[in-house]
Write a structure and sequence with these properties.
Layout: H1 13-26, H2 37-44, H3 49-60, H4 65-82, H5 85-88, H6 92-104, H7 111-114, H8 117-129, H9 131-134
Length: 135
């Protein structure tokens, strides 16, 4: 309901973001399927930006339709938030740092994974920055 004003109800932006992240954390599987994580990592290594973007777009097309729709919605929203960075200080980089663990739900117990966290974050940053291309 777009007529609901969370601000008038005393709900802070941080509370909304926390609830959103908790929702994604409670899903049985992450929004970005584990089965596509390795492919995302490999694609992020492509030097040519245009080729990398096209390959990322092909990966997103592999999402389950519901995951695709939710991913499109959340990334588009995060892009809108990032466009207001002068007011909210939330650049695409900052947003990707906050949201990539929620969207991808990594295995922090896996030592191999720890070496790729910056790559995962940069993939989400690319989705946020280039959302018009992807969707």
């Amino acid at each position: 309901d777009h007529n609901i004003s969370l601000e008038s109800m005393g709900v802070t932006v941080n509370a909304v973001a926390g609830a959103l992240k908790a929702f994604f954390a409670d899903l049985p599987d992450p929004l970005i399927p584990y089965s596509l994580h390795q492919e995302l990592l490999e694609t992020s290594k492509i030097i040519d930006k245009t080729e990398r973007l096209h390959e990322l777009k092909e990966i997103v097309k592999k999402f389950h339709p519901v995951n695709y729709d939710v991913f499109k919605y959340i990334i588009t929203h995060l892009n809108r938030v990032s466009q207001q960075y002068k007011t909210n200080f939330m650049t695409a980089d900052n947003l990707s740092i906050c949201f990539w663990p929620t969207l991808m739900r990594p295995d922090f117990e896996n030592r191999e994974f720890l070496s790729t966290t910056k790559i995962h974050q940069s993939v989400i940053e690319t989705f946020i920055q280039q959302c018009q291309f992807f969707f």
